[in-house]
């Protein structure tokens, strides 16, 4: 069975990213860090609720 590779999040460090979450939420900010569980740290984040 092939080993599953974690996503390459290093290339997004110090770049502006946009993340879609559940409950129609959308967060945009500069990625400052992450861990092995894919928790991310965003700086200057803006949290928006999308209209459904």
From TrEMBL:
GO-annotated biological processes: mRNA splicing, via spliceosome
SUPFAM superfamilies, alphabetized: Sm-like ribonucleoproteins
Family statement drawn from the similarity comment of this UniProt entry: Belongs to the snRNP Sm proteins family.
An example Gene Ontology CC term for this record: spliceosomal tri-snRNP complex
Keyword tRNA-binding set for record: no
Signal peptide (from-to): none
InterPro entries reported for this sequence: Lsm7/SmG-like, LSM_dom_sf, Sm, Sm_dom_euk/arc
Protein name, entry field: Sm protein G
Gene3D superfamilies registered for this protein in UniProt: 2.30.30.100
Organism: Tetraselmis sp. GSL018
Any Pfam family hit: LSM
Keyword terms of this UniProt record: Ribonucleoprotein
All residue ranges annotated as the Sm domain in the record: 4-52
Record flagged with keyword Zinc-finger: no
One term of GO molecular function: RNA binding
């Amino acid at each position: 069975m092939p080993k599953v590779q974690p996503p390459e999040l290093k290339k997004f460090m110090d770049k502006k990213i946009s993340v879609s979450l559940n409950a129609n939420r959308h967060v945009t900010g500069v990625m400052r860090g992450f861990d092995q569980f894919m928790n991310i740290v965003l700086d200057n984040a803006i949290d928006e609720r999308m209209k459904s």
